[in-house]
Amino acid sequence: MLHAAALTYFREVARARSIRRAAASLNVAASALNRQILKLEADFGTPLFDRLPGGMRLTTAGELLLRHVSETLHDFDRIRAEIDDLKLARSGHVSIAAVDSLLVDFLPRAIDRFRADFPAVNYTVTAVGPTDVVQMVAAGEVDFGFTFVSGTPASVRFLAEVPAPIGAVMRADHPLASRLVVSLEEASSYPLLTQTGPLPRASEVDPAFAAFKDALTPRLMSNSIQMLKLAIMLNMGVAFFTRLGFLSEIEAGTVAWRPMASPGINKLRLGLLAPSARAMSPPAEQLARRLADGLSRLGNEGAGYMSGSF
């Protein structure tokens, strides 16, 4: 196995085309550097340089090795930088704003996993409306946030996205649970539960669903997803959410989520929103990176389910 020092010596000789100049650049003895090059050539059983009056020139074998060395040292530097980031991220504070469906399952579990590696980090997590998430991230009031994907100012960008259509959520033994897709007309035949507040701006692609929701006379309306979740479990009616707030219940088979037969609402996506230029603190950067990975995995695992393929 080649050591990083030997690779660095080899790369510098290839760049400087001289043992002496490379040694001066690296601040090592020319004799020591030459021994490393000779040892590499002995290990490979072939010359890596042509020794010419004008200096050292890579052989074909040397050029192959240089490509490998450049990739290896680049990866080494990247990993070392990530390790340095981990050291800096051991303590600190992370602030997050998110639509509340992310706060009941996905985010608490993700933070719990993160704290195993970073036990000294503290958190502030705030449930706000989709538009408020964008404003808070853009203004620097929070480190990052989760909201529905739509047009955003240049000061923010989405690090990861996942399909997040709004579907019908009901207890697993509800009559509509036997359907693969639920139409607006079918849903309106049962008591309905709704969350207060406007629909995500991205839902403007589906005027039919927006009009349907505006015309509802709900059995129960609340701004608390936890209350609506309990109302669903008590079989009080059907609600409309993304499945992300009901992952555990869906997996346990106590709640059913079914896509709506309304094309626009099935195009909704939810993403991790971060500042475009403003640097995040080391713990926020580390957590955002893990959340982006987790969101991508969630999208891959749930793609078939979200599209209505059961």
TrEMBL record:
Write the record's keywords in alphabetical order, separated by commas.
DNA-binding, Transcription, Transcription regulation
Q: Domain (HTH lysR-type): give its ranges.
A: 1-59
Tell me the leader sequence span.
none
Quote the InterPro entries the UniProt record gives.
HTH-type_LysR_regulators, LysR_HTH_N, LysR_subst-bd, WH-like_DNA-bd_sf, WH_DNA-bd_sf
Highest rank taxon of the organism: Bacteria
SUPFAM superfamilies on file: Periplasmic binding protein-like II, Winged helix' DNA-binding domain
Pfam families in UniProt: HTH_1, LysR_substrate
PANTHER family tied to this protein: HTH-TYPE TRANSCRIPTIONAL REGULATOR YBHD, LYSR FAMILY TRANSCRIPTIONAL REGULATOR
Family to which the UniProt record says this protein belongs: Belongs to the LysR transcriptional regulatory family.
Q: What is this protein called?
A: LysR family transcriptional regulator
Q: Which organism is it from?
A: Alsobacter ponti
